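Note to self: keep these together.
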Amino acid sequence: MKNAQERKAGKRIMQLRMEKRYTREQFADIVDISAKFLYEIENGKKGFSATTLLKLSKALNVSMEYIMTGEDYKRPESEIATSLELSKPNTLENVERLLKVAYEIVKDKQEF
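Structure:
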């Protein structure tokens, strides 16, 4: 099972790399691994560390979860940010006022 997951992750990495039009050598340089190691990752022959996963995800501009599972968990804070970006300016001002009031309430309770 683990090997199948690694193969799928490697295929996603290869697909994303090719979409960005990086050669294997170019992308390996960006991620600071050897082209041979990248080949082995992409073909499911080798696993990789969390550090390498982080480098890969940053370079490909995707979440680590997407590389490993093919799914991208949308965090609640990103949903909030998206909603705020779509809001009218007066809504943003009201939200900012509410956050300031909430901060003051929490700050006052922490002082006791």
